[in-house]
Amino acid sequence: MATSDRSITRRGLIGGGSAATVGLLLEHPDVSQAAKRRRPRPPRRRQADVLVVGAGAAGMAAAHAVAKAGRSVIVIEARERVGGRVENHDLSGGEIVEVGGTFVGPTQDRMYALLREVGLGTWPTYDEGQTNLLLEGKTTRVSNTDQSTYVGALGLVGGLEVLNVFPQIDQMAREVPVGAPWTAGRAQEWDGKTVETFKNEHFQSAESRSLFDAFLRILHGAGPNEVSLLFLLSYVAAAGNETTPGTLNSLIGTTGGAQQDRIVGGSQRLFVEIARSLGSRNVVLSSPARRISQDGSHVTVTTDRASFVGKQVVVAVPPALCQRIEYEPLLPAVRDQLTQRFPMGSYAKVEVFYPQPFWRDEGLNGQVVGEGVIGCSWDSSPPDGRPGVMACFIGGDRHRAWNRQNLPTRRKLIVDELVRYFGPRAAKPIDYFEKRWTGAEMWSRGGPTGFAAPGVLTGFGEQLQTPFGRIKWASTESSDYWIGYMEGAVRAGQRAARQVLADL
Amino acid sequence: MATSDRSITRRGLIGGGSAATVGLLLEHPDVSQAAKRRRPRPPRRRQADVLVVGAGAAGMAAAHAVAKAGRSVIVIEARERVGGRVENHDLSGGEIVEVGGTFVGPTQDRMYALLREVGLGTWPTYDEGQTNLLLEGKTTRVSNTDQSTYVGALGLVGGLEVLNVFPQIDQMAREVPVGAPWTAGRAQEWDGKTVETFKNEHFQSAESRSLFDAFLRILHGAGPNEVSLLFLLSYVAAAGNETTPGTLNSLIGTTGGAQQDRIVGGSQRLFVEIARSLGSRNVVLSSPARRISQDGSHVTVTTDRASFVGKQVVVAVPPALCQRIEYEPLLPAVRDQLTQRFPMGSYAKVEVFYPQPFWRDEGLNGQVVGEGVIGCSWDSSPPDGRPGVMACFIGGDRHRAWNRQNLPTRRKLIVDELVRYFGPRAAKPIDYFEKRWTGAEMWSRGGPTGFAAPGVLTGFGEQLQTPFGRIKWASTESSDYWIGYMEGAVRAGQRAARQVLADL
Question: Which UniProt keyword terms apply here (chains A, B) (predicted)?
Answer without folding.
Answer: Oxidoreductase
